[in-house]
Design a protein that fits this description.
mainly alpha; 12 helices; 0% strand; disordered C terminus
Length: 294
């Protein structure tokens, strides 16, 4: 029987990640409803701006005391977060959510491969890759993936890799408060693009309910939960566990956008979930990383 210490150090952050992934994919489906009104750049900007206000009020990150090195980590974390959001939403204009998430996943998958030191980790990564190979061709059988949209998704994956690596470094010093600072930096970086693209349409009161919902589901809630998880599990484990993201994205498309799944997609989901479960069961039992008190 697992000890309470193991449950706290391993299963707790895993649960947070599952909730975060479900939240962010639900938010992505809601965000697509805003594209006809304010476009992808405007949606990204208003999502990050609202989320930054929420996190600034809730987390009060200005109380955190950080060294110059910690600030550098937070700055890269925030810029990576902004780029990840912006490029992912740009990809959603022409690429289905399931495909975009699968392509974006190349970022955390690379983190898992490059940081792994155990043979068993490569087994789970290989299983996840097999799932992705099933997911992408199966999902695109009805039409080719737009090359520009695909490149946007791959760029989002590169930003996701930086988000994982620097998010862990930034969170080690100030924990969840780092998420508030990071989202504020992301909002400052992306807001000019949103204003240039959407203009006065961002002030339309009709978009307010959906914008707040997207901000909470896609940014404020999941990134706060991920920041807690990042400080409690290794970067390679985080990357492997995130293999569930394409599966959750495909299911979100089915539930909220009516996207039907092919046999290959169902097989891909099974392979990716099996990889995540295997990584969880073989996770090293090690002490949690220290987190500064709020």
């Amino acid at each position: 029987m697992a000890s309470p210490a193991f449950l706290r150090s391993s299963l707790f952050p895993i649960g947070l990640l599952v909730i975060a992934m479900a939240s962010i994919q639900s938010g992505a489906s809601l965000a697509k409803s805003l594209f006809p009104l304010i476009g992808a750049p405007g949606t990204t900007a208003i999502r990050l701006v609202f989320a930054s206000f929420i996190l600034l009020v809730v987390l009060r990150p200005w109380q955190a005391r950080m060294s110059s090195k910690a600030w550098r980590h937070v700055a890269v974390y925030g810029m990576a977060l902004g780029g990840m959001n912006f490029l992912f939403y740009m990809s959603l204009r022409t690429v289905p959510i399931g495909i975009a998430v699968a392509l974006e996943f190349t970022g955390p998958l690379a983190v898992a491969v490059l940081s792994s030191r155990r043979k068993v980790d490569f087994c789970w990564v290989g299983l996840a890759v097999a799932g992705l190979l099933l997911l992408v061709p199966g999902a695109t059988s009805a039409g080719a993936v737009d090359p520009t949209g695909g490149l946007f998704a791959l760029g989002a994956g590169a930003c996701w890799a930086l988000y994982i690596l620097f998010g862990q470094k930034a969170g080690e010093a100030n924990g969840i408060q780092t998420a508030g600072i990071g989202v504020a930096i992301a909002a400052a970086c992306i807001a000019p693009f949103g204003v240039a693209s959407a203009g006065s349409a961002l002030l339309n009161p009709a978009i307010l309910p959906a914008a707040i919902g997207v901000a909470i589901l896609s940014t404020a809630l999941p990134y706060s939960l991920e920041m807690v998880a990042l400080t409690r599990i290794p970067a390679r484990t985080f990357g492997i566990l995130m293999s569930m993201e394409p599966a959750i994205g495909a299911l979100s498309g089915l539930l909220f956008l009516g996207e039907l799944l092919t046999l290959n997609q169902w097989l891909a989901i099974a392979a990716i979930i099996a990889a995540s479960a295997g990584a969880t069961l073989t996770m090293p039992r090690q002490p949690a990383a220290p987190v500064a008190a709020d």
